[in-house]
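WARN retry 2 of 3 for item q-0093 after timeout on previous attempt; input resubmitted unchanged.
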Amino acid sequence: MVCVIGGVMVVKKRRLFAIALIIWLLPTLLVTDMVTPLVKVESKLYSRMVFLDYDYAKKMVDGNVEIAVLYDTGDHFEIAKRFAQDLGQKQMLGKSVAVRLHDVNDFERVGIPTAFITVLETQKLKKIAKALISKKRLVFVYDEANIAYGMVGIRLGANIVPVINIENLIQAGINLRPIVFQVAKVYDGGY
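OK item q-0093 returned
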């Protein structure tokens, strides 16, 4: 036999547990809802920007565009998989797009793709930024806050605006077609 006071306590504990669970999961649910549209927009923009590199044809792998997506955490792996879903097995300007996912810890073993997309914590990206730039390939950043260590990002606001880090493009010897600079914001070390 359960006493009423004990029953009330059980119900209160269950409610508190349910509320705590919702509060714990809420950020994940909200971020997931925001991630999908962002990845779709970035996938479309980044896959087209590859072709705005004057030397993209020389950077193709076996005649196709290969994009290496670097990730570092479980959450970032899920985002990387979304990039693979949105970009993989597509045709762009008659060229196939292949996407390869790579844990950043295996970065040294990654071949040289046509371009990189980085889905990394800032500190991890900062550690490999020079090595990425030295490969002379476009480096796209998933998080605009990391544009200092990449070459192209996206600013979301009232409009979707590409952000270009010219300094890193120059260091890598990459020349983009002028149309990019008509629509993009140039990163100058701050905003």
